Amino acid sequence: MAKTSAVEKNKRRRKTVANQAAKRATLKATIMNQELSIEERFKATLKLASLPRDGSKTRIRNRCEVTGRPRAFYRKLRMSRIALRELGNLGKVPGIVKSSW
């Protein structure tokens, strides 16, 4: 199990990203618009820099839904390889059976 504080911090980041997404997108569009003056674009850059860092989507860490483990994460199943193996052995994940040869 991962530290509860790390899992909760990641959840807070997801909420912040959801709240800030529209604002960040408009500021980024303003910054990339070549037709605007440099002063307007620079003001938009400063506003974007003043927003919270945790509002950026790249700050979110993919974590296992079962254990909170940050590594060896399968996106499709939203869990780590270890949790997948345990649940697969118990027969709780459809389509996964233990291999033997």
Automatic annotation (TrEMBL):
GO molecular function, one term: rRNA binding
Span of the signal peptide: none
Pfam families assigned to the protein according to its UniProt record, in alphabetical order: Ribosomal_S14
Region Disordered, annotated ranges: 1-21
Entry superkingdom: Bacteria
GO cellular component: cytoplasm; small ribosomal subunit
Keyword terms, alphabetized: Ribonucleoprotein, Ribosomal protein, RNA-binding, rRNA-binding
Gene3D superfamilies to which the protein is assigned, alphabetical: 1.10.287.1480
Entry keyword annotation includes RNA-binding: yes
Biological processes, Gene Ontology terms: translation
PROSITE patterns with a match to the protein in the record: RIBOSOMAL_S14
Family indicated by similarity: Belongs to the universal ribosomal protein uS14 family.
Subunit record text: Part of the 30S ribosomal subunit. Contacts proteins S3 and S10.
Protein's job: Binds 16S rRNA, required for the assembly of 30S particles and may also be responsible for determining the conformation of the 16S rRNA at the A site.
Record-given protein name: Small ribosomal subunit protein uS14
UniProt gene name: rpsN
